[in-house]
Structures are given as structure tokens and as C-alpha cells.
Amino acid sequence: MQNSATGVIRHNQDVLQVIKSYWQLTKPRIILLLLITTAGGMWIAAQGQVDPVLLIVTLLSGTFAAGSANTINCLYDRDIDYIMERTRSRPLPSGRVSPRDALIFAITLAVLSFGLLTYFANLLSACLAMSGIFFYVVVYTHWLKRHSTQNIVIGGAAGAIPPLVGWAAVTGDLSWAAWVLFAIIFLWTPPHFWALAIMIREDYAKVGVPMLPVVDGNEPTSKQIFYYTLSLIPVSLLLVYPLHVMGAVYATIALLLGGIFVQKAWKLMQAPSDLMVARSTFKYSILYLMLLCAGMGIDSLPMTHQMVSAIAQHMQTVIGALL
Fold first, then answer.
1. Of these four, 4, 55, 237, 264, which has the most CB atoms within 10 Å of its CB?
2. Contact (Cβ atoms closer than 8 angstroms) between residue 64 and residue 113
3. DSSP secondary structure string, 254-283?
């Protein structure tokens, strides 16, 4: 069967190859990060005591929602994916999955996500998940990606919705802390993707996608990466003060991780065309987000609260004895 979008002949596959092709359409590596932020939002909202069933269902629903959005993104971008060497072997440009089947798959995932969240959590979390799909597909993929250097900045809102879904699934509403989580992901997105864009700048230039490094160059891009990274530190600490939903353990982790991130962004600003430095910044951005969310989880545990209280009391006793 021939793929009309690319002219590539679609070869027959066994069942495992078919499953692998549809799995690749969902971009599972991207989904993992989204699920970590979703779990982080749930963990804080539940103060470290999340209902296991709700956690599993929400993460599964988040997987379906993100998979749906990523599949439609692959469907929309199959023309430029065919041109770039890095993406030519993806299921749609290679012809292993037809556009019609990909669309049916995406719609099915979205319906499953909405249904599961509505039934097991609440309507707010389900609507937030659908808004994430809409924002990623319509605002980012269709409107911004091929037309604006700010595509990643504005489009980053789509990737910042998962912690809101997690928070809403637990509480049924959205507090200021939930919006701070949103802001953290929103500010993290440009340094993460622009570092990648510096690495694969030529690919984006070849297909006419106006990523910031392509239009403005690596030097202005590296400066933007540094400024966004620097802003992450005070915003991440808003959870400690004035919101008081995180404590000293998280504050220490956030400062340490943020400091390393700023250092890497600074190095990139000094050598904006060094692809190894860009790669290091990109890889660390992933580690930063994972460890920051892990820090949220650790700080939320009742055991951590008890430990911190015990240390504080001990210090007060020692100080009192010295005075």
C-alpha cells in the first residue's frame, strides 16, 4: 500500500511491528517527562499520600492524552519529517502507518483519556487534559511551529498542563501552588528545546521551521536560554515561600539543581556554537526536571516532615544549651 503523503510503499508487518509503530507515534520518551510532572503535582496536592488507584488511572490517562497529541503532531508534520534524516524513519513518513489509521488511533486515545479521568477523577482534570491536546495540536503545531520564533515559548504551555491535571485529579480545583508548577514547566521548556534546536539547527533550517537559532542565531538563543534558566530558581522557590507547600528539603534540592542548570546555561552563552555544550545543557535540562519533581515527592513525605521537625528541635535544644 502506498502512503499518499510521501510516496513511500508501506510494507507488510507482523503484529509486534505494528504495535511498535503505533507506540513510536506517541513519542514515549516525551511522555515520560510529562508523567513525572503529573505525578509531582498529585504528590504535592495529596501531601505525599496519593490514592494508588487514582495515581495509576491519572498517569494512564495522561499517557493517552499525550500520546494522542503527539500522534496528531506526527500526522501534521509528516511532510517535514520525511525531509529530515533524523525523522524520516518515523511510522508516518516511512509509510508504516497510514494517515487515516493514525488519526483514528489519536481520537481513540483522546476519548479514553477523557473517559477515564471523568469517571475516576473529575471533569476538571479531564477538560484540562483535553485542553493540553488542543493547545499542542492547534496553537503550537498548526499555528506557531512553522510561523514564529516564539513557537516554543507560547507552545510550552501545552507541556505545562500535566501538573495541573495531576493537581485537579486529587483536589478537584487549582490552587496557586498548581499554577506555580505550571510556571516552572513553562519557564523550563525554552531552555530545554532551544538547546536541542541549537544541536539540530541545520535540520530545522532545511525544512523552514523558524526556530530561534535558525532565525536569530545561536548567540541570541543562548542568551535567552540563560535568562529563562535564571528565572527558574526564584519561581521554583515560590512553593517554599510564600506558598509554604514545600519545605527545607525541596528548597535545598531546588537551589542545587537550579545552580547547576544556570552554570550550564552560562557556559553555553560563552560558547553558543559548541554543540557539545548545547548537548550537555539539553541532557541536564531533562535531569533537572526529573530530580526537581523527585525533590517535591521526597519533601511531601510524612517521614520527611518528621525528620525535619526532629532536626529543628535538636538544633533548638543545642542552641538553647549554648546560650
1. 264
2. yes
3. HHHHHHHHHHHHHHHHHSTT-HHHHHHHHH
> What single-letter DSSP state applies at residue 12?
P
166 near 41, Cβ under 8 Å?
Answer: yes
Q: Find the domain containing 86 and state its range.
A: 17-174
SS percent in the chain: helix, strand, coil, step 5: 75, 0, 20
pLDDT tens per residue, range 155-191: 889 999 999 999 999 999 999 999 999 999 999 999 9
pTM to 2 decimal places: 0.90
Average pLDDT over residues 232-259: 96
Judgement on whether residues 21 and 170 belong to the same structural domain of the protein = yes
Same domain? For 131 and 76 the reply is yes
**C-beta neighbour count of 180 within 10 angstroms:** 19
Whether the Cβ atoms of residue 51 and residue 304 lie closer than 8 Å to each other: no
Cβ proximity of 62 and 162 under 8 Å: yes
DSSP state of 140: I
Report the alpha-carbon distance of residue 296 to residue 208 in Å, rounded: 40
Q: How many domains does the chain have?
A: 2
157 and 209 fall within a common domain: no
pLDDT in tens, 104-116: 999 999 999 999 9
